[in-house]
């Protein structure tokens, strides 16, 4: 009686790799043993444990970033089958195969799927995307936000600086200094805060400079890809209105 052999189901990954920031990118294929409920991160972990490519050759483990694995930190952003998204929530069963992984190209590649997000963090510094601590906390609780404002402000606060909206935006590239959707949305958030409002004009001034809000081409790609569903285009429109009012106010007072 002939024995029946069970064939292990595998998942094929085609990964764009890059050994250093200055080296040329190349692709390498891996066949990973399939398991139910796999996500892209678990597949990359499998490659890390056993870095053998589809040709059976030993290779270096693929380098990537991750942290929370719950779509909160934004660290595992990459381009999966042509779409920028989070690897932790990309389920293998819902992806067309072979699965193609690439680094986000809006940012400089450090190695393989790891990118340098300095451009985005510098943009957040530029618009002062935080609440300055100036001693007002000694005065006790500040004014309460209206519930209607608090609700939409909470939606904006869910931004995890993943960079996906900048990757999808055609106006954020190496030839442009456009600040990008996420920092503009954060201006709206912090200008709405009772304490953050003290620096409102400073933030609007930053958006009037080169690479500011005028760089938005209204492609609306950002709002389509945002993993948190943040109303980025609504924020951009609202901030654009505030910038215009501020500009006319300066002109009238000149």
From TrEMBL:
UniProt-listed Enzyme Commission number(s): 1.3.5.1
SUPFAM superfamilies given in the database record: 2Fe-2S ferredoxin-like (SSF54292), alpha-helical ferredoxin (SSF46548)
Keywords: 2Fe-2S, 3Fe-4S, 4Fe-4S, Iron, Iron-sulfur, Metal-binding, Oxidoreductase, Tricarboxylic acid cycle
Domain 4Fe-4S ferredoxin-type: start-end pairs: 150-178
Domain of life where this protein originates: Bacteria
Pfam families named among the record's database cross-references: Fer2_3, Fer4_8
Top enzyme category: oxidoreductase
Cofactor: [4Fe-4S] cluster; [3Fe-4S] cluster; [2Fe-2S] cluster
Family as reported in the entry's similarity comment: Belongs to the succinate dehydrogenase/fumarate reductase iron-sulfur protein family.
The name this protein goes by in its record: succinate dehydrogenase
Organism: Thermobacillus xylanilyticus
Gene symbol of the encoding locus: txxe 3156-sdhB
């Amino acid at each position: 009686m002939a024995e029946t052999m069970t064939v292990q189901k595998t998942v094929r990954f085609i990964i764009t790799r890059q050994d250093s920031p200055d080296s040329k990118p190349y692709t390498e294929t891996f066949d990973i043993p399939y398991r139910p409920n796999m996500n892209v991160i678990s597949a990359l972990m499998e490659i890390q444990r056993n870095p053998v490519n589809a040709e059976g050759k030993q290779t270096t483990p693929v380098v990537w970033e991750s942290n929370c694995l719950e779509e909160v930190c934004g660290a595992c952003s990459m381009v999966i089958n042509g779409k920028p998204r989070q690897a932790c929530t990309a389920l293998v069963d819902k992806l067309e195969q072979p699965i193609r992984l690439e680094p986000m190209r809006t940012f400089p590649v450090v190695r393989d799927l790891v990118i340098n997000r300095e451009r985005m963090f510098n943009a957040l510094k530029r618009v002062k995307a935080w609440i300055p601590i100036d001693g007002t906390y000694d005065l006790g609780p500040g004014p309460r936000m209206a519930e209607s404002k608090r609700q939409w402000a909470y939606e904006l606060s869910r931004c995890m600086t993943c960079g996906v909206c900048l990757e999808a935006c055609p106006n954020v590239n190496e030839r442009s200094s456009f600040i990008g959707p996420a920092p503009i949305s954060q201006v709206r958030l912090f200008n709405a805060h009772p304490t953050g409002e003290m620096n409102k004009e400073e933030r609007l001034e930053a958006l009037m400079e080169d690479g500011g809000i005028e760089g938005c081409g209204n492609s609306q790609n950002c709002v389509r890809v945002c993993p948190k569903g943040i109303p980025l285009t609504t924020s951009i429109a609202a901030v654009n209105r505030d910038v215009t009012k501020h500009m006319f106010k300066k002109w009238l007072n000149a």
